[in-house]
Amino acid sequence: MAKKLGERLIESGLITAEALEKALAQQRITGHKLGDCLVEIGVLQEAQLLRFLAAEFKTRFVSTEKLAQVKIPPEVLDRIPVRMAEQQLVLPIAWDRERRALSVVMAEPQNEALVKEIALVTEMEEIHAFIALRSAILAGIRKHYYGDPTAFSQEATGSNARADVSALSRAWEGVGNTGIKSSPSLRAETDPSLRARLRGGTGQPTQMKDLFGAVRGTLGDNDYIETLSILVGMLEARREHFRGHSALLARQAGQVARRLGLPPRDVSFIAIAAYLHDLGKPTDKHLTLAANAAQPEWKAEAKRFFRAPIKLFETVHLPVQVNAILAQLHEAWDGSGVPQGARGDEIAPGARVLAAVDAYLDLTRNPKNGLGRALAKAEALAHLRSEAGRLYDPQVVEILERLQSGDLLRQRIENDGRVILVAESDASVRTALVDGLLRAGLVAHGVPALDGVAEAVTRGEADLLVVALRFGLPDLIALTQYVRSQPECAGVPIAVLGEADPPTRAQLQQHGVNTIVSLPLDAEAAAQTIMDLNEDRIVHGAPARLVQGTFDELSMHEVLRVLARNRKSGRLTVSRGGREASLQLESGRVVFAQMDGKTPEEALIELATRSSGDFAWDANAVLMEMPTLDQDLEVLVARLAPASGPAAAAG
Length: 651
Description:
The protein is an alpha/beta fold. It has 34 helices and 14 strands. Helix 2 packs across helix 3 and helix 23 (377-387) packs antiparallel against helix 24 (394-405).
């Protein structure tokens, strides 16, 4: 007999037995379906249920947001009569005339009889069925068949939420009629008052100060950082060699900080400082440690203007940690910096990280830097190595070198952006476990305390959590309960590291801990246990994370090689000079390529031979149009390897 929905959700780690009992108690009171009750008490989100069912039905799910954005040509809608669409909750989204293939979203993609009926009615040889919310499909029908522009408003879809969950629950339990997760929208895009302020003018830093203050009081750190990215990006768009500089600085400095073991909140403070570090300073030069060392007059200006961003945002009340980073950005490791001549550990860790990364980016991307020319990557890294211990923190330089080697970015692509966070106060145990996980091919970071761990998990910065028992049972239970109570991260696996007696083990598991990793640590065995836990989570629909990088960090040929070798599915977006192009992959095959003014074949070849620009890999992305290509990426990579090598890059 097939297992019920609640049992499978427990097995998948999306809910705990305790949460199921609470939902069943709610069900006895209200009489609602189990899925309704899980959502009502805040244990499960609709998207989590969709992702889970999509994995079980071996298909993809399409979010309401993506379905609201898709453009469906009339000839595609004509494939399925509107009455059938309404009665069977099915919406056609793409049609391949040559292959006679139709892509549809359905409330019950596992309904084989309905799929066959659709094939018969539409005279199609292939039906590609994705799963979507019932309310989203109904809204899509109203929008596309009836031309209702308000179909996807919150009022139109929100009232149907309970019916959605009931329908999906029935689909699982067999009483019915027998996937992408985009990054969260910024409040700046959805809040009318904030949007009006953004349109009101962002040309000068003094005007932006009011905007920063407005969003600082209403957004959490993550959304605040994303909003800073938009606002500062507007200013930098006018500076020839600094378009996207602060966003790149924030991303790379954040990666270095995580590898350094800084707490999640400190990583957020570094990102905020990265976006603000240049505001209020002279725009004709970029002041960095490398530039200051080469140009004494620049160093004098750095001393004069070091407080400019801090003074500019005094009324915003930035976190004191951000102000400390901004104040010490020009301090050197040996004490030769400005303004105070602080040295070594007297300098805030965030300032040491930001100073090294900022200098590297300035040396490689700005021909008007203090040296008067842009350096090659190897030359810039040689500068950092030679100045480690004088200008820069040697440990930061070591991590930055590894980052620029592409190793970390390669691993992030292989893992579709998923990250394991290890919280352990014993440095030797923490380092041994993180190194073991890295050797196993996983992406892992370690932190010495629990500060900020819960926030990191809810922000999607950790997809599996390993926590030391030495922090104390009460704190571990509190952390586990918090994670399990947040719909966006309730299914994140949690492993506890330490020796637990039977009562303690039972108590931890009762509160939602998935497994116990014993001490003394066997790093390889522990890594295998955690890897198995991670794989199980992925099989049951864990979301991937967006991976961003530049072709300076990892060449296009190497990016494609990693995607091909791992037979990846998802979308690779490439941007350069404000223009975007993309490739869509399905199990290691290129099925779609898009670039303005190019045929799919031309777009594929031009993208595959790119040597500069930025890229983003989204393993959650599902193709919302009919395939236009069918090429094995591994064969393409092998064929283009000579053209993507050093000679091509030099050109």
